[in-house]
Amino acid sequence: MQDEIMQPWVLVTGGSRGIGKGLVLELVKDYRVVFTYKSNAEQARAVEEAVLRMGGEAYAVQCDGSDPEAAKRLATQCLERFGAPHAVINNAGVTRDGLMMSMPLASWRDVISANLDAVFHVTQAFLPAMCGEKRGAVLLMSSVTAVKGNMGQANYAATKAAMAGLARTLALETARFKIRVNAIAPGLIDTDMADGIPEKARQQLEKNIPLRRLGTVGEVAGLARYLLSDAAAYITGQTIVMDGGLSS
């Protein structure tokens, strides 16, 4: 038990697919990783097995962070077993697209709950332990949508824009505890969701990006790994846009 508490670990929310999965596979190179998933246990097990094959250590926990009690249970479970985390990475999120003038209130609230409330609940649940250790990092996943907008995503863009303000404010509040808080705002990333884009549409998307390609999950995960490292010890309160120049 004591050995487990001594080993550094990080939490990744929404780690069973897409960027979250990439974060898990990258961060196990340096840390033990606990990652959450909402419903797909099979996907979560596949990530655990992939990490095992790499010689790393990752544990999947079902948790809906938008439920404050679930976030508290997650924190209690993790803190008792592993101690305070080296980092909390808020990656989980959803979309419910539609033009704002006709968007159902439920679609607005679903996205606010999953993308913003969950970040509040999960981060708040772990912060006291991190402050007590006077070390650690919080990483928020924003989006280029927060910078340049996107038709049909008023709810999503609002939550992702909120990450920048939250990163700045929480960085100020936790600096005295030696905790750093930053956000990453990825552009168009080549995840499994991008596989469904028709080839012609994909070509047009790439044409709009100055670097003429989609970003990779590995690039996002690599930036996250850097921001958690000692090399980034003087970076806090920042939102780093990595979008191939799309928002330039």
What topology does this entry show?
Elements: H1 2-6, E1 9-12, H2 18-27, E2 32-37, H3 41-54, E3 58-62, H4 68-82, E4 87-90, H5 105-133, E5 137-141, H6 145-148, H7 154-174, E6 180-186, H8 199-207, H9 217-228, E7 239-242
Parallel strand pairs: 1-2, 1-4, 2-3, 4-5, 5-6, 6-7
Q: Can you give a write-up of this model?
A:
Helix content is 48%, strand content 14%. The protein has nine helices and seven strands. A seven-stranded parallel sheet has the order 3-2-1-4-5-6-7, sandwiched between helices. α5 (105-133) links the parallel β4 and β5 (137-141). α2 (18-27) crosses α9 (217-228), α4 packs parallel to α5 (105-133) and α5 runs parallel beside α7 (154-174). The longest helix is centred in the middle third of the chain and has 29 residues, at 105-133. The model has no long low-confidence stretch (mean pLDDT 95). Keywords: Oxidoreductase.
Keywords, please?
Rossmann fold; alpha/beta; 7-stranded parallel β-sheet; 9 helices; 248 residues
Could you tell me the CATH topology label.
Rossmann fold
Could you state the order of secondary-structure elements as H and E?
HEHEHEHEHEHHEHHE
CATH hierarchy class name: Alpha Beta
- CATH superfamily placement: NAD(P)-binding Rossmann-like Domain
Structural domain count: 1
Are there runs of 5+ residues with pLDDT below 50, and where? Answer: none
Largest beta sheet, briefly?
Answer: 7 strands, parallel
**Distance between the ends:** 49 Å
Helix content: 40-55%
Number of strands: 7
Strand neighbour order, sheet with most strands: 3-2-1-4-5-6-7
Radius of gyration: 18 Å
Strand content: 5-15%
Describe the oligomeric state of these chains in a short phrase: single chain
Shape, principal axes of CA atoms? globular
CATH architecture: 3-Layer(aba) Sandwich
Mean pLDDT: 95
Structural class, please? alpha/beta
Counted by DSSP, the helix tally is: 9
GO molecular function, one term: oxidoreductase activity
Protein name: 3-oxoacyl-ACP reductase
Organism: Chromobacterium phragmitis
Pfam families: adh_short_C2 (PF13561)
